[in-house]
Automatic annotation (TrEMBL):
<dbReference type="Pfam" id="PF00116">
    <property type="entry name" value="COX2"/>
</dbReference>
<keyword id="KW-0496">Mitochondrion</keyword>
<protein>
    <recommendedName>
        <fullName>cytochrome-c oxidase</fullName>
        <ecNumber>7.1.1.9</ecNumber>
    </recommendedName>
</protein>
<feature type="domain" description="Cytochrome oxidase subunit II copper A binding">
    <location>
        <begin position="1"/>
        <end position="101"/>
    </location>
</feature>
<dbReference type="InterPro" id="IPR045187">
    <property type="entry name" value="CcO_II"/>
</dbReference>
<dbReference type="InterPro" id="IPR008972">
    <property type="entry name" value="Cupredoxin"/>
</dbReference>
<dbReference type="GO" id="GO:0005507">
    <property type="term" value="F:copper ion binding"/>
</dbReference>
<dbReference type="GO" id="GO:0031966">
    <property type="term" value="C:mitochondrial membrane"/>
</dbReference>
<keyword id="KW-0460">Magnesium</keyword>
<dbReference type="GO" id="GO:0042773">
    <property type="term" value="P:ATP synthesis coupled electron transport"/>
</dbReference>
<dbReference type="InterPro" id="IPR002429">
    <property type="entry name" value="CcO_II-like_C"/>
</dbReference>
<keyword id="KW-0186">Copper</keyword>
<dbReference type="GO" id="GO:0004129">
    <property type="term" value="F:cytochrome-c oxidase activity"/>
</dbReference>
<keyword id="KW-0472">Membrane</keyword>
<comment type="similarity">
    <text>Belongs to the cytochrome c oxidase subunit 2 family.</text>
</comment>
């Protein structure tokens, strides 16, 4: 049983996130343009609002899309969920070490 549910919605050029288990928190994440990247940034991966999740907690991700097919993925955690307009797909994972994924 997942302790936290995060709803992700793929949109053209960005993702919307909703945490509704404790407080109703919603935010968008946009990929950082190359001119704004710092030396320690991850090109084509870094965003303006990072999603923060706790360690040692089962996380459920609900994924959909508002326009076209998208794919929500965190390769280093071994998770990828297709986001399809009109469908709600889900996946679960947990993180057992601190880090930036």
């Amino acid at each position: 049983n997942a302790m936290i549910t995060i709803k992700t919605i793929g949109r053209q050029w960005y993702w919307s996130y909703e945490y509704s288990d404790f407080n109703n928190v919603e935010f968008d994440t946009y990929m950082l343009p190359e001119k704004e990247l710092k030396e320690e940034s991850f090109r084509l991966l870094d965003v303006d609002n990072r999603t923060v999740i706790p360690m040692n907690t089962e996380i459920r991700v609900l994924t959909s899309a508002s326009d076209v097919l998208h794919s929500w993925a965190v390769p280093s955690l071994g998770i990828k969920i297709d986001a399809t307009p009109g469908r709600l797909n889900q996946g679960t994972f947990s993180i057992n070490r601190p880090g930036l994924f």
